[in-house]
Specification:
Number of domains: 1
Helix content: 55-70%
Largest sheet: 3 strands, antiparallel
CATH architecture: Orthogonal Bundle
CATH class: Mainly Alpha
Number of helices: 6
Shape: globular
CATH topology: Arc Repressor Mutant, subunit A
């Protein structure tokens, strides 16, 4: 493998390695969401959500659009995120049983259908 590809992959894995960012990506698998929607779903403070979204946007994993005064986010490459989440679920089950810590039900359905 080329060193450049390995470096790019390592950077991508570093970006998604934070639990909040993984949860955001899982939520965005279901549909585009605005910052306040994500805040409410994850019970994380809005400034924290915005910081994580900025990291994901800078890395090219998400993009945003303005909807009036709201900023809404969507995945740039849903198949990449679906594949990564499926790989993690399949080969590294979460502790506490098969569904403990699993993505939301709708996300699990998308992963299984994809």
């Amino acid at each position: 493998m080329q060193a450049e590809a390995i470096s790019t992959w390592a950077g991508l894995l570093k970006v998604i390695a934070h639990p909040t960012r993984l949860m955001i990506l899982a939520e965005l698998m279901e549909a585009e969401k605005c910052v306040n929607d994500i805040r409410d779903l994850l019970a994380v403070r809005q400034p924290n959500v915005s910081q994580h979204l900025a990291v994901l946007k800078e890395s090219g994993l998400v993009s945003s659009r303005k909807d009036g005064v709201r900023r809404c986010y969507h995945l740039v490459n849903p198949p990449l995120i679906r594949g990564l989440l499926a790989l993690l679920s399949r080969y590294h089950p979460s502790p506490g049983g098969p569904d403990a810590g699993a993505p939301p039900a709708a996300t699990r359905r998308q992963l299984n259908d994809g």
